[in-house]
From TrEMBL:
Transmembrane segments: none annotated. This is Glycoside hydrolase family 95 protein. GO terms for molecular function: alpha-L-fucosidase activity. It comes from Jilunia laotingensis. It comes from the Bacteria. Keywords: Hydrolase.
Amino acid sequence: MEHRKRKWLAQVAAGFCLVTLTVSCTQGETKTGDEFRLWYDRPANEWMESLPVGNGRLGAMVYGGVDEEKLALNESTLWGGEYDETQQRPFGREKLDHLRKLVFEGKLAEANDIAGREMNGTSRSFGTHLPMGDLKIRFIYEDSHPVTDYCRELDLQDAVCRTTYRRGDVTYSSQCIASNPDEVIVWNVTASRPEALNMDISLALLRNAEIHTEGNDLVYTGDARFPLQGEGGVKFEGRVTVKAKDGVVEPADTLLRIRKATEVTLLTDIRTDFRNTTFAGYDYSEKCRTTLAEAGKHSFKELLKRHVADYAPLFARVNLSLGTVDNKDIPTDERWRQLRAGGTDPALSALFFQYARYLLIASSRPDSPLPVALQGFFNDNLACYMGWTNDYHLDINTEQNYWIANVGNLAECNLPLFDYIRDLSVHGSKTARDLYGCQGWTAHTTANPWGYTAVSTSIAWGLFPTASSWMASHLWTQYEYTLDRDYLAKTAYPLLKGNARFLLDYMVEDPSTGYLLTGPSISPENSFRFEGRELGASMMPTVDRVLAQEIFNACLRSTEILDTDPLLADSLRQALKKLPPLRIGANGGVQEWMEDYEEAHPNHRHTSHLLSLYPFSQITPEETPELATAARRTIELRLATPDWEDTEWSRANMICMYARLRDAEAANASVHQLLTELTRENLLSISPAGIAGAPYDIFIFDGNAAGAAGIAEMLLQSHDDCIRLLPALPIEWKEGSYKGLCARGGLVVDACWKEGRLESGLLRATVPADFRLQLVDGGRYTLRINGEVQTIRPDVSNCFRLSLKKGDVVEIAGSNDNK
């Protein structure tokens, strides 16, 4: 994994957005660090109250218990399932051509019936991510004094989970970290009185495992078989090493007893045989042993120092204040309840934003073996029992997990995602050939780490071949933010090219219109009514058209930048000319399908046709005002429909889309809805009971990440060659500041505002940059580049055209007339 770290350092030198800048603005900022802290005055009673730590591979949920502390352990490669070369039944070009002929003849129902019988994949060994189980620390006290001064917290600035309390005259203090440099989870506890620590260390595992002791180690070995999700599963070994200052450690069958210690440190690691054939000589058991042995050479203070030095600079790149933290003395869960009761708390929105960045750092580092799955590896043991599993959903959820990465100045957190896309491309080339008789590569709605790129077990949600294109679009987004030509040439373009080749080979000309169409495929995961039946598959649902344009444009721009593949470029130009237009339906909204079908489920949570509005920019208020109005109409119709499926990810979508429509108050209303109804006490987002068959609230990662991306979109936009500062600033956030957000074009941006108006701003070019800057509030400003006042006049849209060299700094200062 060191080679990936070295690769990342080289990419940093090539100009990724890594610089956090200082703006001369103190309004709305706090200096105590309380804005970066989740804290509680009692232990967690359930998983949804516990607090997460993670190092990109290992994760734990920390409960902060007094009588019994519990760390719910996870490892990202702990998966059931295995590779299945027969995952996709062969179908082929001849059958595909026949299906299309039926559709063009108006026999859409017959085509759906054939596709439903013959195009779906199999899931005999699909698998799911699984939680390991609990590491338990049962405290034994020498007295029965009541607990006082209890506090547990998660400090986002240093990624340390702390618990402190008094019992009699003894103060107990514990800290938990997930260290990336040392590759372990570390839990440390001290007592203010010597030899006051007595405890038993045990495991309550959820996997098939044998537990035994080896000296001061608690060892468990087993496998991740999970029959509910098919055959197969990784093998694993986990270890807990105990280090005690003073006192004794006594092994006792399947637990360790610690008596009369003054300080105790637990080090834990889990290793699996996931893809062990990739690494010559890799022994997961030996790796687990040696990792703990190396970490055990260091004191807790040294481990903590190395952890903070590694993590803190990443988190510190961005600061966000949406007002002073007036209620910093109120526990986070109480603030959450007050907001649910109708209160206001802009600082809680800022905390939620930073929490999402923390979660991404915790879950996806350059050396992570896998990207963030549906729940990431903070697995509550609920999603894996659902039909949708804790897998990779490529029809929005996996994509949303990474929406905050670039704008949140965490571009390197995308690297595991890009490695995963590369793996999908290998397996997806077989699926493209077997299913469609096409070149290139594709993937569909659901995926796993075993190379599943086939259609799901039902075409109703699984026949979505442009899921691969949506995933591939992230490769181009990374380039838009960094302008890293080397990355484009070596990583992004080869994968984009393979997906573009699939689309060019897969698409067919409509005999009646001449348009290039995909299909039969679905608009995830919705359906329509046709001749009295509910159907899902059709030719060229709008989402396919949007994604085809994105991939063709990204691939074409890449050929121009890299000066390569002129014949492919010509094919892409011709294909772009033959895409059908976006259409407005009879209901005034953006059509979801090529034909204006009646929606079978008007309350459906998916709005895939509005990818054109966000995260892409094929619809904008400036360039396509009629379509922007239609997009708003689509949103309003969904929200107004009784029993709209309001989930964490669909509500996060609303924040993003309303921000693009410049509707600050509607966007903020959705921020409130996400925070109050679709998160829990630990501020983790949930898919609520009743949605997609969920019998209870289930944590899903995407609401945190995509919700934070929406908050960023309210404060900074850069999607159409134009940087907009504060484009959707709600009244509630009338004062505040941010530092270090990234914009497309290699720009790092700071801003400070007062009474809803920009007071000052700063942009720094990490690479040569050419862009427009729009100051949306209409105030009067002075612009300086590298300290020199500029005489640039804005155009009719109040935009300034700027050309910067690497290292140039643009300062924006408001006039007194703005106040």
